[in-house]
């Protein structure tokens, strides 16, 4: 699904004669601390929920790209930058909820 959003959807736009739509990234507060391997940008299935006026995002537990259950439960993808070693709750991170 991530590959489709990053590569296939823009290619379809271009092949149909339209401009490639940008992938919309917005920020939400991290709901719980996370630790990911540094040096790689991680794009993880997640759920974003609104707590009052601020969105909070929580990465879902998953077993990799073949974990269809986690992808079905996700309503967005959380982006953890490559230079991030550990993430604390309440810190803002970008997420993508799909193209508009």
Approximately how much helix is present in the residues? 10-25%
- Strand content is 35-45%
Per DSSP, the total helix count is 2
Task: Please count the beta strands (DSSP E, at least 2 residues each).
Answer: 7
User: What structural class is derived from the secondary structure elements?
Assistant: alpha+beta
Quaternary structure classification: single chain
Cα-atom Rg, whole angstroms? Answer: 14 Å
Major sheet, described briefly? 5 strands, mixed, barrel
Q: Encode the helix/strand succession as letters.
A: HEEEEHEEE
Biggest sheet strand order reads 1-4-3-5-7
Shape: globular
Distance between the termini: 16 Å
Task: Please summarize what this structure is.
The chain is an alpha+beta fold. Helix content is 20%, strand content 35%. The strands form two sheets. It has a five-stranded mixed barrel with strand order 1-4-3-5-7.
Question: What are the salient characteristics of this protein?
Answer:
single chain; two-stranded antiparallel sheet; 7 strands; globular; alpha+beta; 100 residues; 5-stranded mixed β-barrel
Q: What features would you describe in this structure?
A:
This protein is of the alpha+beta class. It is built from 2 helices and 7 strands. It has a 5-stranded mixed beta barrel with strand order 1-4-3-5-7. A two-stranded antiparallel sheet has the order 2-6. Strand 3 and strand 4 form a beta hairpin. The longest helix is centred in the N-terminal third of the chain and has 14 residues, at 2-15. It is globular and about 45 Å long. The model has no long low-confidence stretch (mean pLDDT 84).
């Amino acid at each position: 699904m991530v590959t489709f959003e990053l590569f296939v959807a823009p290619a379809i736009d271009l092949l149909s004669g339209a401009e490639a739509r940008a992938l919309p990234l917005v920020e939400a507060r991290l709901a719980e601390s996370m630790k990911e391997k540094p040096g790689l940008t991680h794009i993880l299935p997640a759920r974003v929920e609104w707590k009052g006026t601020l969105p909070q995002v929580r990465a879902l537990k998953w077993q990799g790209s073949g974990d269809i259950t986690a992808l079905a439960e996700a309503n967005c993808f959380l982006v953890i930058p490559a230079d991030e070693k550990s993430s604390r709750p309440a810190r803002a991170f970008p997420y993508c909820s799909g193209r508009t």
